[in-house]
Every structure is written in C-alpha cells, then in structure tokens.
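During the first year of the project, the team set up a workflow for recording each protein of interest as an amino acid sequence followed immediately by a discrete structure-token representation. This format lets reviewers and collaborators read both layers of information side by side without switching files. As required by the reporting guidelines, we include two representative entries from the current panel. The first entry is reproduced here exactly as it appears in our internal archive.
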Amino acid sequence: MKKFALSFLALAMTVFASSQIRMTMVDPANHQIQIKNFGMMAVDISAYRMCALFDYQTLNQAPVTIVAGDFNLSSNESVTLSWNIVTGK
C-alpha cells in the first residue's frame, strides 16, 4: 500500500508540476497571438516552433515582435506576439 501511495504521489506531482502551454488568442486582423502557461512550472518558449505557410521557425528567430510579456513564461503568465506576414511566397 505504501508503494502505491508513493507512486500515486510521484505521478500527481509530475502532472501538476508540468508546464501546459496553450494559445489563448489568435487575432488575424491585427496579426497577434497570445500564448499562456497554464501549468505550475516556468518554461522558456523561445525554442518553440510556429508554422507560417510551411515555414517552421523558432520564436526567437521568427519575424515576431513581443507586444506584452516575454518568452520565459512563469505559471499563469502569458505573452502576446505580433508577427510580420510575408505574402507572395
């Protein structure tokens, strides 16, 4: 029984301690996107990739401008990004 309780506790801590990154707003008219960390751990999203017409770039290399926040998201923190649309590819 003790092993089960310890295993369950370890699993629960892993689940609750992880980061959960989600897009919470996409505004195509203003070319903005908001990304939020719903998890309990901080996470650096600068190496996360987004796709723009089959062109995958990490956020720190993509043509984005940070409107509010930064790429290092603490628990319950969000960042708003604006990106430059390149047409005619």
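The second entry, processed by the same pipeline in the following quarter, appears below.
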Amino acid sequence: MAGIYIHIPFCRKNCYYCDFYFSVSLAQKDDIVGAIKQEMQLRADEGEGQVFETIYFGGGTPSVLTVAQIRSIIITAKTHFPISQRPEITLEANPEDLSRDYLAQLKNAGIDRLSIGIQSFDNDDLTLMNRSHVAGRSLEAVNQAHDVGFHNINIDLIYGLPEMSLAQWEQNLVKALQMPVQHISAYHLTIEPNTIFGHWAKKGKIKSPADELSNSMFQRLIDLTAENGYIQYEISNFGKPDFFSKHNLIYWKGDSYLGFGPSAHSYNQQERRWNIRSINRYINLVQSGDQFFEKEMLDKQTRYNEYIMTGLRTQWGCNLSEIQEKCGYQLRRYAEIESKKFIQSGHLLQEGKHLKLTGAGRFIADYIISNLMKV
C-alpha cells in the first residue's frame, strides 16, 4: 500500500503547543496550490509500479482552502498517479471552518474522511492553547459533518495540559464518546522548545503534569474507549472496527508514500526526502525547476530503527522475519536480545515472530523503543 500526503502550510492562528511548519498569512494560498500541482507533475514518474490507496491533506490547516482548490489538487493527483478506485481521502480541518455548506461541498469533491482538530471541549483549555474555536462549535461541526454524510470522522484531543485534572480529562472523553465519530487520536502534550509553551515552560510559567497523573489520564483513555467499542491499534489512536486510518498505517507499517508541499516528507523504503521549510523558496524553486528538496539513502540500521520506532507502537508490533528480510540477520538478533529483559518484566511479549507491547508496556513505550533501537 502507498499513500500521498499534501502539506498545506497555513493556519488562522499560532497554537501555542505546535511546532509544525505553517504561516498565519493566507496571502499565498493560490501560489501554494499551484506549486503543489506542479510538483505532482514533476514527480509523476515516482508513482510507477504503485497503486496509491490514500490521499491525505495535512498541515497546517487544509480547511482554510476553498473546495475548488482542494478538488483541483485531487484531480491533479489522479491525473499523474495511479490512484485506487476507492481511495481514502482525508482532510484535516478545524471546527471554525466547517459550515454545513462547506462540508457538503467537501463530500461532493471526494473527501470521505475528516480529521477535526478539537483538542479540548473546555473553553479555558482552548484559550490556553490559543485555538481559534470555542467548544460549542466543535460539537456543532461534528454533528453537521455527520448530517451531510460523513461517516468516517476522526477527532484530535490533547491531554496532559498544564493544570488539567483527571476529572477534566474524563469530561473531555465522555463528550467525545457521545459524538458520532469513528476514530479518536489522543495525544499527551509534549512541550516543544521552539513553541510558545516551550518558552513559557523555560520561564516556569507552565509545567507538565506529574507522571502519575499522566499515567492515570492514559489509563482512563484506554478504559473508556474500549468500553465504547474502540480498538487501541496504535499508542495514541483508537478506531472502531473497519475505521482505522489507512493513511497513518502506511507510516506505521513502513510502506511508501509521496509528500507534496513545503516541509513534506517522502519515503520509498530505501530513501527519504524532504521539501524545504519555506513557502517562498518552495514556490520559487518549483516554478523555476530547481531542486526544492534534500534526500538521504537509508542504511539498514536506520531502516531498522525507524521500523522499531513506528511498528512497536501498533497492536501488530514488529515482525522479526521482516526485520531480517529488510535489515539483515544481525539486527534481528539484536532485537531478540534487547527485547528479552522486557519480555521477562512483562512489558513485551513475543507471539510467533512478532514483538508486541503488553498493556503495561504501553505506559513506557518510548523507553522500550529507545532501548531496542540500535545506536
């Protein structure tokens, strides 16, 4: 399976926790759309021998685009790449952009999956994060999306916010689970250094919650989603049966994908490339035909580390035979040896050729992964 990722680098506001590449100026929307379509034309030969099962509009906030702009990108992708007959086409969106009319037009343009950045149902949390919407708009947007025919909806939530209590997190989950959504992505806040939150943390204005509270929040997330029919198929992702994110599975299982737009990454299992992190330079270089990306060949150790880092976070874990096939026998043996202490402690289990996290292992996933990676 292969996928196409499209990075739309625009947002209406600067969310204080975010370190993705974006601009709050929307003046160059037309130019970016044109450059993305031109990049697709330039790279058409990279799709040979593959069938693309997913198209994913990420960002930034892709819902700042008009439906005509979104449709034109989809048409260009289908013109230059072999797209399957029924691809999963996802659009990331913020609640404030999703009017009933806009949603209906998105559906008509071919978008069949929405990923709505709700983050919290608490207005104080939204203000703290500098989000553009209020909690009531989130509820309205999801219900309107459902009413116009979207039945594959993800919502994003954040927990572990400064001053957030376990009770407040439970209230967020209860509201989410009452909504017509088939998928929930819930992430513990990571305070990145080059963000507003990062600067505040450095000055002591905010701090992360204690590990015990974070673990309690994670456990409630696991318990409540399971009680409501969701499967934790990746550490932070919970989907109802048949509603796992096909596009994100491409990343987690190490399949190939092409990324278009400034800062977008591509991967073909042998090589990684990434476009430059500048809207102006990206547009100018694509238009002039000059190189607008960097790339690196991935050696076996790098491919092994990336497979451990992504695969072990999923319910399927890492396949030892696949490690041997792609990375060699020595790295397979390394994984087997390094995993033994975690198997003995009850944090990993081995089922046939698969290494998987146990329930206890999910709480220290990053620690286990870092120990199995080859430095």
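For the second entry, the following points were noted during internal review. The chain is about 40% helix and 20% strand. The CA atoms of residues 38 and 309 lie 33 Å apart. Both points are flagged for discussion at the upcoming steering committee meeting.
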